[in-house]
Amino acid sequence: MYRATVFLRQLEPRTARTTAEVVKFALWPLAIMTVLHRVLVKAVNGARTDDFTPVYRAALAFLNRQPVYTANFNWVDPHYLYAPSGTLLLSPIAIIDPERSRWLFILGNAVAVIIAGYLLLKMFGLALDSVAAPILLLGMFASETVTNTLVFTNINGLILLGEVAFLLLLLRRRDAWAGVAIGLTLAIKPVLAPLLLLPLVTKQWRALVTAIGVPLVLTAIAWPLAVDPMEFVHHTLPYLMESRDYFNSAIVGNGAYYDLPSWMILALRAIFAVVVLVSLWLLYRYYREDRLFFLTTATGVLMTAYFLIGSLGQMYYSMMLLPLLMSVVLRNSVMRNWPAWLAVYGFMTFDSWLSGRFPATGRAAEYMKSTLGWSLLLLVICGVLVARYLTAKREGRLDRGIDPVFDEPEPEKVPVG
């Protein structure tokens, strides 16, 4: 009887004794079950939007030496838009049947997101047993960006992993490998191309060499293996250069959808371009030596600008802003204010604002939420940095930087190596 009692006591769940333990005990089950639900139920069920089928068909055509770039762009269904280098990298998915291949693709992207989250924790000097771990995991898989990446079955989870690996390797001064990490993503889709500015301004030249070299080498291999590589240039590339008015949350996309005059669209893009340039200048001038803050914040500015000011911005691209959101753990983070997280709600929420009672208002809120979220985020970052600059200038301490003066002693630097 005594042995049975001792055994049962060992099975009894621990009772939290600190606030941190309460948070961890509460959030780990919620995070794990959310991950399982998103992968095994939402993603496997799928949705009307299917990004995987065009990729599978293109990979199958590539392996069978058939034309790949045959999409009819008059339809709004997902098209195959990847370059021959991306086709080469993705072609193994067509070795098995489409259903099992799709499941593996979902699993691969889910695992990539989890690994990216783990690398983000390491980047900011946080452990798996910290409160931040379950918060990050739950936040990622509860968001629209991760959920729809899995449901639509696209490649963005792996692109996120490449982005985080790129930043971490830059921080650790492993420049050539950092270039390989981002180069593999660029070989598939150029969404992270603005981040090549980072090794340029930090003078980490080897990262640039491999970042450009990897897609060039893969293109050289794929070009003679493809049946119609020039069709990518003549047929697909012109479409990629256009700004469409559907499934496009960029200023130009929503402006076209709501039939705004061209001058207004151009003016809005110009205004936010100035906001971005001011933010990047202040970051470079006063923060480039604070490498963790500089790289993660500049990444957020560059990627948000790409989504908002560029020709195509889709809400689930916001996954690439996770390094910026994670920077909230830094004492000088630009994310430590409520307007920043109101912006995050706009481009990360899985809530639908479509309303049966107020259809026009609900549709506008649904279609504009990510556009407004990205816009507000850029304004907040610029506002925080400009306010810091003006305060430091007024107090005569610009030569010491523009960080706010903290009352408490400065903590130890966050380890990144």
UniProtKB/TrEMBL annotation:
Q: What is its main location?
A: membrane
For this protein, the parts annotated as crossing the membrane are 103-120, 126-143, 150-171, 177-198, 205-226, 263-284, 291-309, 315-334, 341-360, 372-390
Does this entry carry the keyword Cell membrane?
A: yes
Q: Where in the cell is it found?
A: Cell membrane
Q: One Pfam family name from the record?
A: GT87
Q: How does it sit in the membrane?
A: Multi-pass membrane protein
> Is the Transmembrane keyword given for this protein?
yes
**Which keywords are on file for this protein?**
Cell membrane, Membrane, Transferase, Transmembrane, Transmembrane helix
Q: What InterPro entries does UniProt report for this protein, alphabetically?
A: GT87
The record's family statement is:
Belongs to the glycosyltransferase 87 family.
Q: What is this protein called?
A: Arabinofuranan 3-O-arabinosyltransferase
